[in-house]
User: What shape does this take?
Amino acid sequence: MRVYNFSAGPAVMPLEVLEEAAAELSDWQGSGMSVMEVSHRGKAFVACAAETEARFRSVMGVPDDYAVLFLQGGATGQFAGVPMNLTAAGDSIDLLNTGQWSAKALSEAKKFGLDVRVVADEAASKYTTTPAAGSYELHADAKYVHYTPNETIGGVAFGYVPETGDVPLVADMSSMILSQPTDVSKYGVIYAGTQKNLGPAGMCVVVVRRDLMGHARTETPTILEY
Amino acid sequence: MRVYNFSAGPAVMPLEVLEEAAAELSDWQGSGMSVMEVSHRGKAFVACAAETEARFRSVMGVPDDYAVLFLQGGATGQFAGVPMNLTAAGDSIDLLNTGQWSAKALSEAKKFGLDVRVVADEAASKYTTTPAAGSYELHADAKYVHYTPNETIGGVAFGYVPETGDVPLVADMSSMILSQPTDVSKYGVIYAGTQKNLGPAGMCVVVVRRDLMGHARTETPTILEY
Assistant: This one.
């Protein structure tokens, strides 16, 4: 008696995945333990994590100069993680506000002493539109441009990828990741909570260009540091 | 063919818990979905979360003036979460260093512009001892005193609860929570990754005295803010 859940929260997973997980829940790969109980440093788990990354890279077409990080804290964690890793206090960023998720990214970014420039805001349509390409001005001194390709609450999606030149483009892809081909090389950082398109709630995937790593603010919590 | 895992990582869970979880993995409480797929705002999940909190409160004996938070990011997240919520830059804290986990809490706390005073350090015994009560001096101006009641790597445990007067006592109880009666009222904050004593990896429980909430630094990531 399986049902589908089309609401703007977690999505259903394929039945065969759930059935395999259930069958292995007390004995995974002959270990006598579930995958949740084995050591995260053990051979079997390390191989499982490596395979997960390899499959994700293959399906998404992630180039070698991008790292793939599986983190906790969901996309909400990355609303803070992105500014903490990519900016210093006093920097400027550009943000396209197309609805509730953009607004959350905006409000979190404001905690970090940044000049957050909302270069497009779809308030006039009550967030039922996205801005046309070329209808807004980006700033060359922005540390990054943030946008939300798909907004689940208002139900709007961009039909194009914003052109940001040398400024890293950052996208919250939680509700559309892997639903269509993505040219990863156009982005500096892609992040997504896994609960809609990739798996259960409780994880976040971050795809980050390697040259953007290693520059986190001193006070970045380790769990959010690229 | 179940086995036990006594290494210093995740621990095994009771077989009957895993079997119930497996049986419900494609249809939880007649919802036609697993608990990982239903809306986190739905009645069934909200009731499940409330029951989990109520049971935890009852088993641990958590007084009403303490909040119980289920968070992501494990104890490592709280190594940052505690200083971000309980201090401002320039403040002082006291820390008892009894091994690898204390050292991790120490190293993370140092990111936050604090005067971190290591009031006891068991280096002389190579971290095979804990300091005797009364053998170290605490400071009345400390924002909190941090200790690790049980260290899994060195295998040492405190036989007493440090007396800190009006200064909030903070404990990383990851490897001993609920293994013995705890007088919660002696603590300001208790935190624990759930993977050893409470459940699978991927969650952290924080028990925090309510008067210590609502004072987080502006730049505290929402996922870590009490």
Remarks:
- Residues 43-60 of chain A form the longest helix (18 residues).
- The mean pLDDT of chain A is 95.
- The helical segments of chain A are 15-23, 43-60, 74-86, 100-109.
- Chain A is about 20% helix and 20% strand.
